[in-house]
Design a protein that fits this description.
This is Hydrolase. By secondary structure, the protein is α+β, with helices and mostly antiparallel strands. The chain has helices spanning about 5-10, 20-25, 25-35, 65-75, 90-95, 110-130, and strands spanning about 140-145, 150-155, 160-165, 170-175, 180-185, 190-195, 195-205.
Length: about 210
Amino acid sequence: MDFIQNHDQVGNRAQGDRLITLAGAERTKVLLATLLLSPHIPLLFMGEEYGESRPFLFFTDFHGDLARAVREGRAKEFADHAGENVPDPNAPETFQRSKLNWKQQHSEEGKAWLAFTRELLLLRQKHIVPLLSAAREISGTVLQTAPGFIAVSWRFPEGTLSLALNISATTVLLPDLPGKTLFAWPNESTGSLSQHSLIVRLAQGESAS
């Protein structure tokens, strides 16, 4: 199972920052598309489907000595992080701040994120899931790497799936990716991949390479 963030990673940060806060919306969209269009089983963290930006803080419902020990432990853990005022894990407001903002999915930005996620899931269901039924293993071959860039391919009895993503600040030349373009974000280009972008291609048939 693959994910780009989960409750452990987010909740154990001092301020519970989600990936969208740390990496920005454009990079996060590229990573989300990578997650949902790769052949491995994807895990979506709550609210990720509509671009939730509220933090997910470390919270507990402990009492007495245990509550005090956890509170002091969290403060000690981040004591060397300048300017970090770690929320009290046992305070009710820490839990309240971590709850999803369901109204966000109905905002214009939230609707766009949700439509983006649905498009990816539909592509996965239609084109990628059928490849998995005959798969003997799912191990990719790395075609090219550079700082912030990777291109990888997966070969199946029914075809070859290739994916390249670039979350760097520069344009990167693409290796040869066989087949037709299944998805490109934000738009398709020939021979190169601009910053904060991704392309997925599918070559169908046993002879695909």
